[in-house]
Amino acid sequence: MPGGKFFDEVLDHGLHEPAHAVLLGDRVGRGAHGRRAGPRVGDAGADGGGRADRVRVAGRPVADEAGRAGRRPRVHDGRSVRGGQGAPGRVLLHRVLIGGTRAGVGGPDAGGGLRHGRGAADPRSERVRPVNVESLLRSLAPDVLGALMRRYSDFAACEDAVQEALLAAALQWPSEGVPSSPRGWLITVASRRFIEVLRTESARRRRETNVFLMEPPPAPIAGEDDTLQLFLLCCHPSLTPASQVALTLRAVGGLTTAEIARAYLVPETTIAQRISRAKAKIKDVPLNQPGSVSAVLDVLYLIFNEGHTASSGSSLNRVELSDEAIRLTRQVHARAPEGEVAGLLALMLLTDARRPARTNASGALIPLEAQDRSRWDSALIAEGSSLIESVLSTEPPGPYQLQAAIAAVHDEALSAADTDWPQILGLYDVLARLAPGPMVTLNRIVALAMVEGPRAGLAQLATADLDHFRVDAVRAHLLEMSGDREGARAAYRLAAERTLSTPERRYLRSKADRGHSD
Fold it and tell me: Which residue numbers delimit the RNA polymerase sigma factor 70 region 4 type domain (predicted)?
């Protein structure tokens, strides 16, 4: 989040703490016991086979290349199924204060279903021309899982069934072609797998009769898109922030447990236990239960912040997390194009546009004032600026919209000297009244110092009840601006000792050492 000069790069966390800090704070406990109905795509067993050789498609075994029915293919290597602007205008302060509403534009339908009376999907019927199967499956996966959740409610069992349907599609579609209704095909295959697993378990409990009644009726599959409902379920208020993040990345983002663990630098078992506990806690929560979109936005913001400025480790950013946060936020915006959703998307685009210039070839941090602005992504800036200008002219301002407006002012400046600090200070004044918080307070102090001088900022900092290494970094910079080199050097060293980020520590130490040599 922008804060000015070096601080714009050190104070990028806005209203919330980084997701990594939340995740590390979640004590690892014993995971809930849950059944595994079949292999996940990308989670094959040690022998490479897993249970993929028992996948059935539309109720029949998968045929081999010679067309002999009954031969089931072995899977030797699993991988996750992935998915896959106007010139920037000036954001004026007075536009933030304009109220108003805008009519919503409904989200797109995720795909058609089966026609009434046709019964179960036949994988060999009505194939269409080849497409990017991996991207198609990744985009359909959340909607298919949502459709099963709406029908059966059991999150873990539904997810396992969807994974097997995705695996079957990944094996067949590249060679046999994509069905005319890919969504309907996946829902039908996943439903049959779900029922098959229930029948197997119920047979051991002598309840075949009751389970038989759950056979999917030969009715057309609803065309309703349940992706947003799946977002809401993954961010259910009964879950901890750490569990919300992990479950969202797993169920909606399509990342494997290992990928999430690598992104957050925690053991894979820790992430697996969080996901398992989260599934157990929401097992009986219906998909159509009302939820809070703001909770979804907070989770996506946590993911993006950790990707934009990693809270620990050797890299300044984790691109896979920030890219995934933007992709998922685009999905939410397509289904709920309201003010704060647009504000968060704009904030992410305008902030991520500066990423190419934030580090040099060796990965060292480059402060905002020293960045080569020609390396900023102009397409992202144009898209983000257009988005935030549009929403501020029609919607009452919210916290994410105000932060996006601040980012737009930074991005529109041709140089650091051209930055409109009085407008930024005015925006922070509004943000502090609307959504007060420690990082908002700190960033406002930086803006105040840039407008009224470093001594005004130091006076405000002395009265603020803040405790964070970024506070020491701000104090160091303001002392340096005021001419107190000894005080600045001591504050830089203290900030360097307290941060867990290697690039930030190196930068702060270099500032302290340079002050000593001057």
Answer: 232-282
- With 0-12 / 13-18 / 19 or more C-beta atoms within 10 angstroms meaning exposed / middle / buried, residue 61 is middle
**DSSP classification of residue 501:** B
The 8 Å CB, 24+ separation contacts for 104-108 are 104/336, 104/337, 104/338, 105/337, 107/225, 107/228, 107/334, 107/335, 107/336, 107/337, 108/225, 108/334, 108/335
At residue 307, φ and ψ (nearest 5 deg) are -75, -40
DSSP class of residue 235?
Answer: T
Host H or E run for residue 128: strand 127-128
Distance CA 445, CA 454 (A): 9
Nearest to 302, CA basis, from 242, 234, 259? 242
Q: Which of 108-122, 143-157, 461-475 has the lowest mean pLDDT?
A: 108-122
d(CA 104, CA 113): 25
Given a contact cutoff of 8 angstroms between Cβ atoms, the answer to whether 179 and 123 are in contact is yes
C-alpha span between 233 and 222 (Å, rounded)? 19
CA gap 73, 171 in Å, rounded: 9
| HSE-up (13 A, CA, CB side) for residue 221 | 30
Q: Which helix (DSSP H) or strand (DSSP E) does residue 178 occupy?
A: strand 178-179
What would the pLDDT profile of 289-319 be if each residue is shown by its tens digit?
767 888 899 999 989 998 998 888 888 888 9
Residue of 212, 100, 200 whose CA lies nearest to 160: 200
pTM tops 0.85, yes or no:
no
Distance of CA 492 to the CA centre of its chain: 32
Nearest-angstrom CA–CA distance, 455 and 484: 11
- Measuring CA to CA, how many Å separate 440 from each of 15, 428, 436? 6, 7, 6
What's the distance, Cα to Cα, between the start and end of the chain in Å?
30
Tokens, residue 43: 């989670």
Domain ranges of the chain: 133-203, 225-283+291-308+317-336, 467-517
Amino acid, res. 516: H
Please report which helix (H) or strand (E) contains residue 348, including its range: helix 339-352
Residues 61/73, Cβ–Cβ less than 8 Å: no
pLDDT bin (cut points 50, 70, 90) of residue 187 is: very high
Nearest to 86 by CA among 365, 414, 381: 381
- Rounded to 5°, angle at Cα 141 from 140 and 143: 70
CA–CA separation, 239 vs 57, rounded Å?
Answer: 35
The whole-angstrom distance between residue 93's C-alpha and the CA centroid of its chain comes to 29
